[in-house]
């Protein structure tokens, strides 16, 4: 069985076709990684730090090639593709310092002499299952910290990001078995989760729940980043023009194919009418053919396009109104207009499910309390933005919103890689990713007691 990846802006362009690894080869990759882990840990902090630094240098030296590959394989606009490559370099460099971080602490024994200490040690093989939307950055922000603390890595990328993952591993130039890519789909992902010593997943809610169940059933540490139905709250005192620009970017940037994209806009009180007009105008400008390629881009495949256009048509048929967009774009590739829908009835899937595209619904709220209740009315929330000039309101909202990230006067989209990252409720499971927090996830804490030889017990 083969894995094929096509250019979403030109569906006739086959980017890569490779044989799927299969369950047996996936298990063999894990076995090889487990053998390689002993020598990878033994090279020490200096060796691992230098190796991660060289990976950063290699990615940076090939930045133009990688940005072009991201554009071609997953349809990301060039500006965002270049940004992803730069972020990937920065992540490798950030975690290149992690091998030198303290790995434990010394404690005073309760009785007698000797040493009582704790140490954090790697689990062994980290199994990573990653999506296609950030085909370099997400594999890197999972792999780099896992490698830094002494694990080896087996990576199963989404089929649509296969070429990017293979090229990333090639450029990283790590010893054989230290970073292995297994192309494939559900069979390979299932086999990897069944064999790895620690598991990190990013993808859909349905698959993420299955990964969590499988890993926890084995007693294996697991973190999962899943769906997000992110909201933006706009207060009447907000800078409406600025808020509309931020929201347009968060709705349509990379065709809304980010877990932090805005899909629900909640206008409070008198903000509704001016925001509706400004946001519709901003999204209409992005629908211009030149801007569509530069800012939005295509969705990943035909199935995604059909699901999005079907949901928009269903919402309009149920009484909703398209204030901007709403249709396919008549050009080669899987393009949909950036879309804003008003008066979508309660209970419609666009108000309760993640569709992963440049489509958002505009909702009304009488006051901040109603807006926060609406924003929290979701089984999975990763990022919520709040737009106001009132610091007290911003702080109060940040305390009450059920979201992994709260961004004030900024788009909901955007992640700082050096701070913890995860969603609330069904959007995330397990410890946080990124920053220093993830180093604890990829290691187990051990307590060690050292007594002088011949000392009484």
UniProtKB/TrEMBL annotation:
InterPro entries: Ald_DH/histidinol_DH, Ald_DH_C, Ald_DH_CS_GLU, Ald_DH_N, Aldehyde_DH_dom. Keywords: Oxidoreductase. This is Aldehyde dehydrogenase family protein. PROSITE patterns: ALDEHYDE_DEHYDR_GLU. Residues 3-448 form the Aldehyde dehydrogenase domain. Pfam families: Aldedh (PF00171). The keyword Oxidoreductase applies.
């Amino acid at each position: 069985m083969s894995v094929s990846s096509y250019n979403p802006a030109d569906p006739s362009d086959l980017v890569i076709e490779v044989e799927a690894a299969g369950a047996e080869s996936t298990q063999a990759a894990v076995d090889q990684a487990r053998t390689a882990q002993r020598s990878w840990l033994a090279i020490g902090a200096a060796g691992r730090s230098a190796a991660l630094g060289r990976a950063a240098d290699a990615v940076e030296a090939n930045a133009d090639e990688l940005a072009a590959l991201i554009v071609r394989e997953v349809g990301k606009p060039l500006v965002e593709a270049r940004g992803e490559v730069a972020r990937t370099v920065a992540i490798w460099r950030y975690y290149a310092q992690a091998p030198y971080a303290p790995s434990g602490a010394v404690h005073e024994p309760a009785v007698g002499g000797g040493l009582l200490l704790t140490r954090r040690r790697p689990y062994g093989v980290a199994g990573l299952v990653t999506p296609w939307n950030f085909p370099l950055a997400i594999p890197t922000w999972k792999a780099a910290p896992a490698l830094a603390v002494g694990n080896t890595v087996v990576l199963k990328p989404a089929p649509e990001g296969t070429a990017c993952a293979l090229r990333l591993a090639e450029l990283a130039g790590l010893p054989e078995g230290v970073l292995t890519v297994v192309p494939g789909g559900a069979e390979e992902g299932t086999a990897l989760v069944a064999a790895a010593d620690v598991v990190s997943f990013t993808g859909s809610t349905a698959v993420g729940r299955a990964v969590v169940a499988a890993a926890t059933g084995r007693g294996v540490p697991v973190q999962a980043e899943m769906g997000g139905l992110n909201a933006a709250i706009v207060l009447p005192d907000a800078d409406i023009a600025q808020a509309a620009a931020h929201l347009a970017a968060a709705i349509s940037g990379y065709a809304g194919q980010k877990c932090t994209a805005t899909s629900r806009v909640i206008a409070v009180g008198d903000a509704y009418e001016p925001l509706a007009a400004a946001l519709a105008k901003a999204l209409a400008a992005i629908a211009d053919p030149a801007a569509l390629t530069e800012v939005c881009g295509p969705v990943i495949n035909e199935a995604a396009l059909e699901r999005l256009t079907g949901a928009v048509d269903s919402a309009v048929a149920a009484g909703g109104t398209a204030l901007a967009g709403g249709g396919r774009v008549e050009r080669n590739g899987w393009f949909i207009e950036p879309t804003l829908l008003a008066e979508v009835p309660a209970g419609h899937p666009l108000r309760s499910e993640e569709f992963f595209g440049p489509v958002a619904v505009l909702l009304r709220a009488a006051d901040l309390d109603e807006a926060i209740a609406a924003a929290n009315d979701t089984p999975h929330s990763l990022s919520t933005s709040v737009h106001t000039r009132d610091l007290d309101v911003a702080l109060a909202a940040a305390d009450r919103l059920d979201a992994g990230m709260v961004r004030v006067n900024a788009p909901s989209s955007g992640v700082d890689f050096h701070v913890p990252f995860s969603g609330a409720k069904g959007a995330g499971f397990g410890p946080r990713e990124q920053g220093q927090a993830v180093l604890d996830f990829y290691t187990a804490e051990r307590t060690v007691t050292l007594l002088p030889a011949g000392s009484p017990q």
